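I am still getting used to backbone structure tokens and would like to learn alongside you. Label the sequence line and the structure token line clearly, so we can match residues to local backbone shapes. Go ahead whenever you are ready, and we will take it from there:
>
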Amino acid sequence: MVELINHGVYLLDGQQIVPQKEGLPSPDEARKQTITYQILRAHEAGNSADNKMHIRFDAMMSHDITYVGIIQTARASGLKEFPLPYAMTNCHNSLCAVGGTINEDDHIFGLSAAKKYGGIYVPANLAVIHQYAREAMAKCGNMILGSDSHTRYGSIGNMGVGEGGGELVKQLLRNTWDINPPQVVLVWLEGKPKKGIGPHDVAISLVKATFESGFVKNKVLEFAGPGVKNLPIDFRNGIDIMTTETTCLSSIWVTDEEVKHHYELHNRPQDYKELRPGKTAYYDAMIRIDLGTQESMIALPFHPSNACTIHELQEHPEEILKKIEEDGRKRYGDKVKDVNLMSKIRDGKVWADQGIIAGCSGGTYDNLCEAAAILNGQSIGNDYFTMSAYPQSSPVSLATQRSGVAQTLTEAGVVLKPAFCGPCFGAGDVPGNDCLSIRHTTRNFPNREGSKPGQGQISWVALMDARSIAATAANGGRITAATDVEYEDNYAPYKYDGRIYEHRVYNGFGKAEPNYELRYGPNIKDWPHMFPMMDNMLLELAAVIHDPVTTTDELIPSGETSSYRSNPLKLSEFALSRRVPEYVGIAKRIQKEDHERRDGKTPQHVLDALKQVGASDKDTSFGSCVFANKPGDGSAREQAASCQKVLGGDANICYEYATKRYRSNCINWGIVPFTIARETPFDYVPGDMVFVPGIRKAMEEGKEEIDAQVITKDGVKPIHLYFNNLGKTEREVLLAGCLMNYYAKANKK
């Protein structure tokens, strides 16, 4: 289904793939003819001497988990008005039951900020963030920056990038997104999917083929090939949104009549333009996907890449589920008693307890139509199995009502809900303990669905396409490939009605009201003071994690913890709570001791540690540090880093960062992103300390590595740390202590 070609190729006239040979332009020259570089170069803000690209975006997107923190950071950094269209959606509108008024308080703040600074405000339940962008914000050849990792609109000709809030703040302050010129990978689509195959099947296969090896990490995926024309827009969108899970930087597709029709349908024909690679375009690698051989897929817990075909699961259920059980026991140990996924096997078949179609990937009109066609005249049953569907916007919901899709789903027993990201981040339809949920959503990371292993709760999430979820529902929960059922999809084509947006969305871009007062709820708090980097750095290990990958959901859980998204101090109390529950207490103790040091009352054990390395407490900061093998896979929420900083975190140490966006979040919050060589053992434990002498001077001088020392109960041991590939601004941010301090310093000049 998916073939990886790990060498460069040329694409001639958008049709012929050839290897490198004499007579063709150099790779560096021909790479400029990719769609990717056509767009990137059009968005560069002048030339630079640091070999980086400095990008300005055309528009930005945030949802209500992130926009308060972004605006608060930008305000503290000198924000006057939004210089580009900035849409704030409220698709994480879920938390009122947990936090009282604070959920709606955030929304009121968001609308007041849109009025004051000239923004776009999309009220709760109107649309999930990425569907609103597809319907109202994206344009061919443009670039959109979003504070959600799944900011992907390449399928409709708009490069989308998901980053932490700090990068959005830079754009609001008329600065740039600074990146190394990325490699580009050609994704060549051939053939036509057979009936019953949906976008999630293709996407899961793509993630399975690329994630673990890092084949496309921090690269741009460029989709082309004869198979593109065989995919409707919703199908393309469903693949495109999942490219985030490959850890690629962004994505872009060739555009055609189908894309043109999308813009015409949404009353924006002027926003379409043809995008094609140039005559001779060079790609650093290639992925060939034969759509005709694609099978129905399932991504098993605990990652979208942990995938197999549904037929493979049906043939070997005991073998496959036993491995997941073993993984669960390894992850949770004695915290969870009911690790019993094998109980889902009955009569030799695997049975699910819950089916969900939702969010930016699942709740498309086409997905809901096909699910309805499969469930037409059927029943999901009156036993334990339940099913919900969330259309991804009010226009999509309205279209399902007018076409009869909503009626068919409702008659079958499916519960229809408003546009909402809840099931994707653990704030809606949380499964029961030890229950298996099958979902057309973007992620199935550990505990992302809302379970709490620390309290003895665990549930299981597998990803499947909406079509196979519907086929499973028609069989009462017995996991079934949609290719194994017969159905007729004769529902009417999608008709967009944008009047709900005209009636409810506030569009104040270009109409800022500087004198308008922001409306604060009692839970919206300013960021605490953060200190600049000192000459030396003493770090106490507050958490040491040796998992292969540590997700942002483990660094800061999603779900109900996001009730405190606008209160940095309260939110930080949940940092690493589901992975290292003792971390917060340790970090707060370290922070308290550093404050004592700054007050001239340095604790004796800190003085003793410094004495072992011949250092003074006068020019040495004392902060906490997290070690993880590979941290940062998952969400763009900068809270994964900011919560560490709020608790006095000064650094991360790892072998590599899972994503650029998490590393950038660390930098923007003044957390030094150290790495160590792959062959370096890290057998240290919480309580051990790392002394980094002369870090400030090294950072100022542009050095990229430094000798440090680890202070253990068994003596002092050497360690070599790297902090390479930092741009000039990134170094200045780290020296200042965080992005806000950097801008405050700049504003004083």
